[in-house]
Amino acid sequence: xxxxxxxxxxxxxxxxxxxxxxxxxxxxxxxxxxxxxxxxxxxxxxxxxxxxxxxxxxxxxxxxxxxxxxxxxxxxxxxxxxxxxxx
Length: 87
What we know:
The chain is mainly alpha-helical.
């Protein structure tokens, strides 16, 4: 009988590792800012239901407007800072 060296396959990377490899630099800054804005907006919406009706459309608008605008602005500023640092 021969002893064969069997190499164990590397474990599949976790979702966090894959996300970290995909999101680097300005994109990571934009995503983090968008998530923070969404969380804070949803918290404000849930703690003051008299100001905003609690329905699915309101939740989607909060995610789109708060997350989209803050994410885009943070990404743009981070990209400008990276480009300025290259000069």
